[in-house]
Amino acid sequence: MRALDAIGHALAVAGSMTWQITWSLILGFTLSAVVQAVVRRQTIARLLGNDRPKALALATGLGAASSSCSYAAVALARALFRRGASFTAAMTFEIASTNLVIELGIIMALLLSWQFTLAEFVGGPIMIVLVAVAFRLFVRRKLIEAARQQADRGLAGSMEGHAAMDMSIASEGSFWRRLGSREGYTSVSHIFVMEWAAVIRDVVIGLLIAGAVGAWVPDTFWQHLFLTGHPLAAKLWGPLIGPVISVLSFVCSIGNVPLAAVLWNGGISFGGVVAFIFADLIIIPILIIYRKYYGTRMMLTILGIFYAAMVLAGYAVEFAFGGLGLIPAERAARVAETGITWNYTTILNIVFLLLAAALLVRFFRSGGRAMLTMMGGSPEAGHDPALHAGA
């Protein structure tokens, strides 16, 4: 009976967090779908052919307008690399795609606070600059060429079909004209549903893990782990241990934000939370994919450079935000068990669930069902534009 009560408590905490973030997820994915609908993917690789600052800035912006699914981002980065993008630009695109997207910022603001959203969008570019410098200083051309040869073998990873799909609007015209057309509505609905399909597993797993950890792990465990009794040591330790916890949690994409909220309440440092969020690109399943894509040596290189960069970015936001007085004084992330009440959250959930329903109906009425079966397909599969050409 006690075990059932414990499970029920964990599920209640997970359910409460789900209710708190539902509207924000739908809003974020809708805005992301709108941006992706008007950005044609075939132009991206052409713009990222070197590792100069302009190309890396473009990679950052285009990544932020792309899929937030870590697996799809990793697969798309490999595809861009094979099409002629520089390796550094492809990695920059990948980092931005998972750490600088709209939906991530919204959910962080809702569960944690706006300061964490700001830290993510400040720390992300810092991490990108550090990665770019490290690749230029420490990665030899011979290793990059070996990685390209491995990439050209086309070994399948995860979400290959999704990464190969270009669901942007094919017609010409102004932004609003393209977006307001029947093809625009179809394109947004396809991207919206496919993005959800790509991340739903990680979101659910992340919420369940966060619910279980929040309900079952005592605060004293986290306080000892995060050295809360030693303020300076905690600030130095947080960015080091945060990515390690992320790697061991196996959760990526926006699914690790609920667990980040639990860790913040437990005592991890501000910079530790940011480094934890960044580490979705070095979880064990993705490291295995890197090995398939680029070979063992490059996988280890990516692991080392990414880890060092996210730790340093965590330190940067920790001490910069601390110096500016922007670190929240209270640890009050929204992970507690609460019931559904008639408030702004309920109203927003109803409004955005209706929007999601409308996009779902359009998706299935315009041939979207076939796309779901292609998500994990061959990296060469691509996507037939006729599926969303205004059907």
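Above is the first protein from milestone M3; the second protein from the same milestone is given next.
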Amino acid sequence: MKLPFPVICSAVLPNELWQCNQQDESDDLDVQPRTPFVISNVAPNAVLTTPPIQFRQEVPPPRGSFQQMATVTTVSSPEDASIDSTEPIPAQPSLRTSTAKAVPARLEIKLGRAATVGEGLNALTLTIMILFHAGALAALFMFTWQRLAVMAVLYILAINVGIGMCYHRLLTHRGYHTPKWVEYIMAVCATLSLEGGPIFWVSTHRVHHQMSDQEGDPHTPREGAWWAHAGWVLFGSALHDQTEILARYSPDLKRDRFHVWLSKYHWLPLAVSGIVLFAGGWLWGGLKNGIAMVLWGVLLRVTLGLHATWLVNSATHLWGSRRFETRDDSRNNWWVALLTGGEGWHNNHHAHPVSARHGLAWYEIDPNFWGIWLLSKIGLAKKIQVAKFDPENPKPAGL
């Protein structure tokens, strides 16, 4: 079968929310919610050859194997191609040919209570949660203002800078752009929260937006308030280091070697911080102070941060006001916003997910956006997206 020149092979991902356009390596990746959902799968620096391009028909796989999910999209002229040729296009057709081979679809990720509760409790995750909560309670009996200050600083770095500003508004929704070195530093801060690496966190959250409050949503309160808050973390297989499986939901991060490495070793920054706190506390206050610093700076801080993030998944789909009529149960919750730096304005966010600003009224405080604004003032943030809507007739984006 012969096709017009040039040809772009694309992998179509079912029910996908994101279209990722590969730009020049020096540019940031632009990720916007689109419909239909197509992710270009053209390798960078690829060389287009001249026609004719021959395609060999592959034998269909046997039943029970992966379904083929590859389509071929043609464009009418070289100018319409999504990549630039590194060779001049000769006037006459070349005899060189290329064969396209069908690529099996990636493993499907099934999330939500129905898909994961049958696998039973995850023993490792449950053990870690018990240890951290026990350590958090022990920390309360070893209070000093110095330890509280250390915990507060690390909480801001992990939850506000790491989760809110980086994992959520930068990596998941690309609400603004930063230099890569800034993005990487903030991503390391996010791992201090014990919420996994960037590929896991971003992929899970994109699935949440895709299936929000429907079957397949990892943490919808429609399947139980406690499930939405913490139960979804405790059941099923851990996917934190399954970058190949998760790549279908975060192909932009899968192409970044640093994010792949950080996703595999997401536990390392938190472990190093614990060692530093213990050594520093012991050096300036003895063994007891070293232990107390770890209890406050790691166990208590992480426990509080986890529950703050989980409240976004549970409370902001249960209680609060709704400015926008979205297809889910998202709500604006002021007290969750206080705990998370502005992530509680969840109805605003679901209506305008790409907006880097979640607090859309003067009284909706949004410290995470203030941090992004500060980065822009020193030249470290650009292309900041802010939702625009009619206050008299507020509608979600795209309507």
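Note on the second protein: The chain has a mean pLDDT of 79.
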